[in-house]
Amino acid sequence: MSKKQIIPKKTPMPEQPAAERIKNYDEVPYGYTPEQAMAEAKRCIECGRPLCVDGCPVNINIPAFLKLAAAGDFRGAINLIKETNALPAVSGRVCPQEEQCEAKCALSKRYESVAIGRLERFVADWEASQGSPPLPELPPPTGKKIAVVGSGPAGITVAADLVKMGHHVTIFEALHEAGGVLVYGIPEFRLPKAIVRREVEYVCRLGVKLVKDFVVGAAETVDELLEGYDAVFLGTGAGLPWFLNVPGENLNGVYSANEYLTRANLMKAYRFPEYDTPIVRGKRVATIGGGNVAVDSARTALRLGAEESIIVYRRSREEMPARKEEIHHAEQEGIRFELLTSPVAFHGDSNGWVREIECIRNELGEPDASGRRRPVPIKDSNFRIPVDVVVLAIGQSPNPLIAKTTPALKTGKDGVVIVDNETMKTSKKGVFAGGDVATGGATVILAMGQGKKAAKAIDEYLKTGQW
pTM for the complete prediction? Predict the structure, then answer.
């Protein structure tokens, strides 16, 4: 370690007060000023072995970008990030840095780590404020064509990398707007949609062709795509919601988080009456689950007018998989947590609308396959919570459409496409996959990391023809 003076705590990032932000859909953190960004970047102690890079799924040269940012060279910093990351404004906002690059920061052993995510967000936003970013010089066209199915983080990343290698890339998106989970799943107050559009537009400016409203598996199968393309990448995400299979789950007012967030985000229910998207605006909304999707749903309910928003989670707060920052924001906003609690039934009124959740209390037993302690029901501890909307955020799987229409494609548990973890090759020649379709519900940055692996392997396959 250098003898550089150590500043123990991160530079605070200003944000909207909780009482104000629950009444709007604007982004919660305001971001750093240039002065704050430079001050935070200077906290990097320039250690001899920067493990932060190992903690980054897309291997950004973090120490080098921090050094440039500390000197006020924001153009140099963003150019360096973009060498390995096609979506810096996105990952700077939604990546779980506290478990990845920042967890490996040398400062974190005794102090607060460098705010790497906040700085990535800052330089990406700074670039946007300067107008359209310059495009890198591209190699001569190879003549090879790749079809990318899905425009989420994995698809955008693989497309950006492949087009920079000189290949012709077409993205096929099932919905009317590109971005995948970034537009239908993550709320505006956490990831403004203008930023997603900006990142997608940049990839299209690189030369990627985008075809929307095109459902692969229905409009064309993967086999049919392979007749016109040299390779196919599947980045279709995990859009099939899980359910509890308990009595009353089909009552009116019980949503999957997938539907609830899609209506609120992609279909813009939050901008009523400008967009009159049907959505039940409950006064007492309970969200079942403890991940980021559950916290997003509970915070969305407040912004849609809920007087009380409750998270019902079967384990304790320590076991919640949601980001600590998101849980903290939810607590600030007054969301109630019913922990060590599992729903066992939903009860409705005579018109078929949900009115109560019947729950049972849990205690923690031995660790299960996830490494977390297993919730064990406590006998005769049943109680009821009055509600008028329930959102189920307990996980999701890939949509089975592509697997059903592609006989040679092998899938595993919950319909996840089986891939080689290093090359992202599937069981079908010429077909690669990455992101949630290959992992189940995971993080944006992991999907991007798999997109990068796939791009490298696709390029190799196109050059050699070897599978």
Answer: 0.93
